Each structure stands twice: as structure tokens, then as C-alpha cells.
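Q: A small favour: would you put together sequence and C-alpha cells for a protein?
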Amino acid sequence: MDPAAAAAVADAHRRDWGFVLAATARITRDLDAAEDCVQDAYAQALTAWASGVPAKPAAWLTVVARRRAMNLIRPRHAVQEAAAARRRRHLARARRRR
């Protein structure tokens, strides 16, 4: 582990954890899932930042955490959309039978 990257991640954790978590929680609407996504982003930063710390670490972390959150909720959203479509089709058939 690169000491400079580790120091940058530690500094970003102290300064930006709450902001990154809040931005991610707005996507997941689940604090536990948001914390997991943010933790993944910080872990990824440890390896990605070995080649250089980005100009805006908080922005980098927020983008990575939010993308992880979107990947997490996308399957759930697809299942909900499919269920809603089935309900709409069922209601449409029921109306035609009247």
C-alpha cells in the first residue's frame, strides 16, 4: 500500500465521509447499503490513488460510491418495474372483461 495514498484516503475520510455517505444514501434510500457502497469506494481509492491522488478526492469518492449504489439498486428496480407492469396488464385485462 502506498503511504501517500493511504494518507490521502485517511484525510478524505476525516473530511468527506459524511458528504459522500449522504450523497450515496439519497440513491439507495438505505443507510446500511449506502455505508457499504462508501466503504467500497474508500477501499478502491487505496489502490487507485497509488498512481496519484485526484484533484478533487471527495468528488472522486462520491462518483465511485454513487455508481456502486446504482449497480446495487438497479436489479431491485428492474424487479419492481416488472411487477408493476404485470399489475398494469392484469388490471387492463380485468377492465376489458367487464
Observations:
- The helical segments are 3-28, 31-48, 57-97.
- The radius of gyration is 20 Å.
- Residues 57-97 form the longest helix (41 residues).
